[in-house]
Known about the structure:
The chain has helices spanning 9-12, 65-74, 81-84, 117-123, 142-155, 168-179, 195-203, 215-228, 239-245, 247-255, 272-286, 306-314, 339-348, 358-370, 377-391, 413-421, 428-435, 451-463, and strands at 25-28, 34-35, 51-54, 113-115, 127-132, 160-164, 183-189, 207-211, 231-233, 263-267, 295-301, 353-356, 400-405.
Amino acid sequence: MPPSATSNRESDNQSSPPAAKSKYVFRCIGCASTATSAGENFRCAQCGNLLEITDPSWTTNSLNADALKTLWRERRSSNSPLDLSGVWRFRELLPTPDSGQQVVTLREGNTPVYELTRASRDTGVTHLFAKHQGMNPTGSFKDTGMTVAATFARQAGYRWVACASTGNTSASMAAYAARGGMRSLVLVPEGKISWSKLSQALDYGALTCQLRTDFDGCLRLLQELVRSAPVYQLNSINPFRLEGQKTLAFELLEQLDWQVPDHIIVPGGNLGNSSAIGKALLEMLEINLISRLPKLSVIQAKGANALVRTLREANGEHLVSVQPETRATAIRIGNPASWEKAVKVIRATEGTCEQVSEIEIAQAKAEIGAEGIGCEPASAVTLAGLKKLLQSGFVKKNETVVLILTGNLLKDPDYTMEFHRGDLFADAAEDRAHAALQPLCHPPIVLDANLDAVIETLEKAEKSEPNA
Ligand code: F0G
């Protein structure tokens, strides 16, 4: 293995206390066998299933729930780099590196929970919140996992890290690799990721390859690559990523003063995030941080609905792959790697899985934008999904619901522009449905540069129906 990567100056100089040493092990989600190390594919040596991380110290014997709540809250007034991170602040429930100096952090996490007043009025759900993971340093939830996985990549001395991505993972990985002094290799499907995400990877210095395939093809190639080259894979198959992504749930519950919501609704693509949130909920229940579980539900785009079909057609017993197609490119995935982990946590929390159409996604995204919040299309499936779950009676209007917004509005400006200009959909039926969303569309108006023209436009707008 190449020698240790150059160090991150900021974290080397940090005066924070070293993270408590954890004794984590890798456990197979299929046969439950454990190992102290994992192969390059993070799969079980016995049965080939995916691994997860667990630590025997994450029990009520070693951890006191009230003491943890106090400690985590106190750390919010600390200026040490580890405490400033909304991930490492929860380090008692994370695998930790040998030294706090190893940590690669961009002060991720600490994302806001917003009340959705407009959506609450429209849906009738009185307690409706959005936790906005798009407010992370690179604009998506990936950063919370990347800080942990990049830290362990650096500790292991890797020079190269790599991922297959629909865009956000690559942006995040490239940033954390740069901060940690490592080089990064990005494999993305050509023409199927937003320019905004691609440009982030370029700016952070990644070696970026646009492959003539889809995300699933990129991931397959990455699996081959890690077997033949000394690169460390940072896809969500890497269980360190999911450990970091658990902190979304810890932070959310802390923000809700440990009042458990009835429902958490999350978008599903490769299904790492739903798995991570579910794992966190089960661990919190285990150590009495919470006394009951919220229902965790996963929403997919109809055109990329592998999990929906896996549950409906195969009762969750084998994966039903699909040929994915959706304008929500972040979740344009047909063969989700963590499907079994997701099935387990949906069942354990008594959640469900639902699918939404392209027009439903577009409408929900515009509605979240009209709240002054905004998100990328993949995140908007949560609001669209909530509407369906209300119709089916799975969610009741008097229940507390938290939507997880996974990516920032600025991640996909092309989509937003096309929506407002009215040319998002080529299909005639969708185009007609889009016409019904006219009140949500605010196309830019080109005018001569004179006062009368602007005043006339203002007066016309004042008379027109406000969409608020
Ligand atoms: N939302 C956004 C904005 C995403 O970027 C992704 C996944 C998801 C939701 C789905 O999360 O895969 O954990 O189920 N993006 C990955 C990527 C695949 O490469 O950026 P998941």
